[in-house]
Design goal:
Strand content: 5-15%
Distance between the termini: 37 Å
Number of strands: 7
Helix content: 40-55%
Number of helices: 13
Strand order of the largest sheet: 3-4-5
Number of domains: 1
CATH topology: Glycosyltransferase
Oligomer: single chain
Order of helices and strands: HHHHHEEEHHEEHHHHHEEH
Structural class: mainly alpha
Shape: globular
């Protein structure tokens, strides 16, 4: 009988080649412009214009995912065209942070880790840098990422000790609110602390992640999507959802952010309770998967449901499980997390890619959900799903890959 590991080993090579070919074609097609968050009928369109931005402009929270994919592709192939695309993104994000353009979000971590920290990590040293010009570009990317980290620090609300997720800090509808996704934005602050030696960054990460562990991880090991604190007193108030099925259900992508985000922040802080939180998130996620290992968009839905799947949640979870396997320090638990990640990734390759389904698409991964309650990006490709799918493939073929987070 063929094991999951053997099946994945057979499938992963062709999956990587198909993903890289699609990515290169898309990079050439979009050039200096950015695609929208999700596909429409399985094809990406230009990011739409708004009142202050032209179509294809660098705005919103997802524009760094193409940058991250280009750096992953460059690491895999050494193909110079991917490096050129990656540096183009770094210059765009440098301009964005210096112009103060669309920065009122906690997602600065997503944006600047992949667009600017990644090239700094890859190009700043003597190894891997193609030229003095590349090292200068890496230094500029570092400066941009540090500016973004400082801007993110401005969203820390005292005395709650949380980083506000969305909107203007004076907006009464958003004050004191954070979301489970914010765990993935903390690595920018941890990196900034390493770079500068300033303890403020690490302190913010410790406080914010402790609050999420205490109040957003439920006793049954599921997570709440959003939570409110009183911004004046710091009192914890209530949980709610924006993208889950119900306030007391478990949004699948949020649970996947919990696996990966708590694991990353454990490694940054050394807090064992964050490792425990990551394992609890993983246990709940794995216990609520359907037979084919690709979750429904909310984990309240199970086998036999007509609800859509969210392949992006699975891709994030694969990366998180692999990170967790390296963090636990126990061979049996690590083997279980690795096997679960392998099974999930194999199912994505076999059931959720354009090649497997014979679908004409410029997405790397089909069958994702952005926001089901609002009917946004349902059963489509999405930029974060594509990125984490490619990261999952890279983690499989390059077990020693050094993460950007």
């Amino acid at each position: 009988m063929t094991t999951t590991a053997e099946g994945l080993a057979t499938a992963v090579g062709p999956a990587v080649e198909k993903a890289l070919a699609t990515l290169l074609s898309s990079a050439r097609a979009f050039g200096d412009s950015y695609p929208d968050d999700t596909t429409r009928d399985n094809r990406y369109a230009l990011r739409p214009a708004d009142a202050t931005h032209a179509a294809g402009a660098n705005r919103g929270w997802t524009t760094s995912f193409p940058a991250g994919m280009h750096w992953l592709a460059w690491e895999l192939t050494g193909q110079d065209e991917f490096r050129v695309h990656g540096l183009r993104h770094a210059r765009s994000f440098d301009r964005r942070v210096r112009a103060g353009d669309d920065l009122e979000t906690h997602d600065l971590g997503f944006l600047y880790t992949l667009s600017c920290v990644a090239p700094w990590r890859l190009l700043a040293g003597t190894e891997g840098a193609a030229s003095d010009e590349d090292r200068a570009a890496a230094a500029a990317a570092r400066d941009a990422a540090l500016l973004a980290a400082d801007h993110l620090m401005g969203r820390l609300l005292e005395p709650a000790g949380i980083v506000q997720a969305w909107g203007d800090l004076t907006d009464p509808a958003q004050r004191g609110r954070t979301i489970i996704d914010s765990l993935m934005n903390m690595p920018l602050l941890s990196w900034a602390g390493e770079q500068t030696g300033d303890p403020r960054y690490a302190d913010a990460v410790r406080r914010h992640t402790a609050q999420l562990r205490e109040h957003m991880l439920r006793p049954d090991d599921s997570t709440v999507h959003t939570f409110y604190w009183d911004p004046v007193t710091g009192e914890p108030l209530r949980g709610a959802t924006e993208q889950g099925a119900f306030d007391d259900s478990c949004w699948a992508r949020g649970q996947a952010w919990g696996i990966y985000g708590f694991a990353l922040n454990h490694l940054a802080t050394g807090d064992p309770e964050l490792l425990d939180a990551a394992e609890r998130c993983a246990a709940y996620f794995l216990d609520h998967l359907p037979a084919d290992q690709v979750p429904y968009w909310d984990l309240v839905h199970t086998d036999g449901s007509a609800e859509p799947r969210d392949s992006s949640a699975a891709a994030i979870a694969v990366c998180g499980l692999r990170e967790l396997a390296g963090a636990v320090g126990d061979a049996d638990r690590a083997a279980r997390y690795t096997a679960a990640a392998d099974a999930m990734l194999l199912s994505l390759v076999e059931h959720c890619t354009p090649g497997a389904e014979g679908v004409d698409s410029d997405a790397l991964l089909l069958h994702a959900v952005y926001d089901a309650p609002k009917g946004n990006g349902v059963d489509e490709g999405c930029l974060w799903g594509d990125y984490f799918y490619l990261e999952a493939l890279v983690r499989t073929v390059r077990p020693d890959w050094a993460r950007y987070w």
